[in-house]
Amino acid sequence: MPSPAIEIEGLTKFYGDVRGVEDLDLTVPRGKLFGFLGPNGAGKSTAIRLILGFLNPSAGTARVLGAPIDDKAAFLDVRQHVGHIPSDPQFYDEVTGRKTLDYFASLSGDERREELLERFSVPLDRPVRAYSRGNRQKLAIVQAFMHDPKLVVMDEPTSGLDPLVQQEFYEFLSQERDRGVSVFFSTHILSEVRQVCDRVAIIREGRLVAVEDIDDLLDRSGKVVTFSSPDEISLADFAFDETIDARIEPDGSLRLVISGNYDALVDALENYRVEDLEVRETAIEDVFMHFYDAGPEGEARQDNEGETETQQETVTDGEPATDTGVSPDAGPTNGEVRDPTDDKAGGRK
Amino acid sequence: MIDELDIALFEFNQRRRGILIVSVLLVATVGLTIAVFPSFGEADVDFAELLESYPEEFQTAFVGSVSDLSSLDGYLVVELYQLVWLLIVGSYFAYAAGSLVAGEVDRNSAELVLVRPISRTRFVLGKFLAMLPAVIIVDLLVLAAVVVGAGLIDEELRLSRLLLVHAVGGLYLIDCVAIGLLASTVFKRVRRAQGAAIGVVFGTFLLDSLTTDTDYEFLGNLSLTRYIDPGELLVLGNVDWGGVAVLVAVACAVVVLAAEVFERRDLS
Predict the structure, then answer these.
(1) How far is B49 from chain A (nearest CA, A)?
(2) Do both A184 and A226 map to the same domain?
(3) Is ipTM beyond 0.95?
């Protein structure tokens, strides 16, 4: 049995009094696409930097491909098999892409460079200073995978990629996973998790709140019903056994999450004139909301009882384009974490 | 050793333009300094008297042990080696080295290197090695400029003594690089590292000058300039081997310390 790709035990990092992450326990199995989801500032980057040995933990430890991060010699050897894409990767401005890759190749090899460059092409002979954000990101992908690592750790790897390249990258990740490569990546974009990951860990405020298989998460989801009527809608009419969540929106419409059959709903609707009615698949945002509402994690539950300001910590993407599976590009506002209970902010109908 | 050399070569290649510019400026400075010398000698001024009239601290700082400005070697010690070399070129190398590690940490490119099987010690060593060719190039170009310049104004300099001053002077610059490297591992921001590095080189230079012949002269022992005397080397041909040993030891110790600091530190 090979050791897991990453094992984290009680990992804690404080910057002075400021919590980076606290008491993180997590096992990332080999050969999986593992998502690490959380809003900005939740501690994702801190956790990744700890795992890769860039930061010294305040407490706890981690093992990467079996090598403890505090065993310098073992950890040094194992890094031959690790690839990394930092958040907002920075190279050497005056150096061309080709020479940058030559440099990294001299340190850890580049068996797959050409193949990767065919897939993620960049203007190799221009200095990196002239690269767009997307090209820099592609260069980062090539350098992370070109020495054929067994584990790749990425910090928000798709930011800056245009939607087409993003799709290509997702596909590439799946193929890598099928080759047995373990991938651990942080994101705050739920659609990405849904589309790409086998399993996801959710972090908020520096603590791990859940680790779930994506399929399990989605199985819990139910359907979302939106209903508007010229009549005043009473929530009490819609409190069925099947109801997971029901609320009246600010515009007077009803938003209902139900699982199971629709019989009770259809009966209830008889009492109303119907202006608009929509039944759709649950977006992953709704699943997470559901998860935070009803999930087994006491802490999440507790937090969700708070006021809006704590709810805003809840992970959600909220971009309307998520149903297409393509997260809309890429500007600084992309995938902003929003309050899942605030549908105006989420832009959903 | 291969990884260090790869890192050194990559770093050096990025610095070629800067080294070229500094070399050109220094050669021009040498040219101007030497070009002025003949008229300097002809002027109707008693330079020995002029030197005497300087405040003592000023003499120690900028004149060194030389008492005769009428010969080219004494003139060069005062005008070139004591001031330009020890203070300005030394500060420049400390400044330049201040960005070696902090530059990569500051803009986050260090992560892309250090995620590979490279220890931080080897990374620091590679960065240090990158500056050695820069020191050698600057050293040799200035040496060549002095030799050519002296030839052009038909003055004699003893090449062996000139080599001595450039050998020990180069060693001094390597120490300045080491100090910059250490600052570069201590501070996460390039500007702070560079500021600290210049501050140390400049500050200890002054410390040496200001404490000489005072009750606090021992404080000057902390200064690198206490261990190199261009006047002794160029005018008299005397090598202070104890001083050379100190310069070598300091360079080694500071580089080791820089590596240790960087090994233990958070990267961001």
Answers:
(1) 53
(2) no
(3) no
